[in-house]
Amino acid sequence: MPFFEPPPPSLPETPQPSEQSWAPPRWDRPSEGTLPAVVGVCRLFNRTDNAALALDHVRVYPNGFQLVVSLVTSPRLPPELRMGGFATLSLIAHRHAPTDQDESKPPPPPRLVPRHGLAMGPRLGIRFSNGQSAGARLQSSFDVPKDEHGIPTEPIIVSGGGGGGGGHFRFEHWVFPLPTPGPLEVFADWPAAGIEEAMIVINGDDIRDAAQHAIVLWS
User: Fold this and answer.
1) What pTM was estimated for this model as a whole?
2) 160 backbone dihedrals φ, ψ, rounded to 5°
3) Sign of CA dihedral 87, 170, 68, 174
């Protein structure tokens, strides 16, 4: 006999909403109608006694890619600092990790960093193998040069979503277009969290190859 009970009687049919006009984005964001291919990276940018910033993985779409960056805080930090989110990162940056020599001494008073744009997330930049770059200066993606079809002729990098908690935070940055063949340099820093500038190199060919495996659900 069936495991599930019969479903309740169907409700009267309601008018279906008309389908909205939709087209995949060309350059300013990942396509909502695509399952991206994922390239694992797991490379450390830099760290302090209390926090580490790393490039976790790359989500690749036919029209560009997302850099997914992780900030991991030390499990030795007090819970209110480790789990408090962005508001406490400036405290983390100036708190010394305990050592055997100074455990008996009271911790130094935290110094607050002014709350400006850099306090809300890491800065990321990229440089393609052909020398083109993005992210070195603050610039709207809509201000970059474009061709006659409105498509940027230079790379763009745009800070996107993120989240997390419990000592692990995630940040996403959208990059258009796909990288040129060869090495792809990725730069990052976060002064508010005490993370100094660092650069890692990944293979742009791996990203270009992965774009062929993204699954376009709606085009």
Assistant:
1) 0.79
2) -120, -135
3) negative
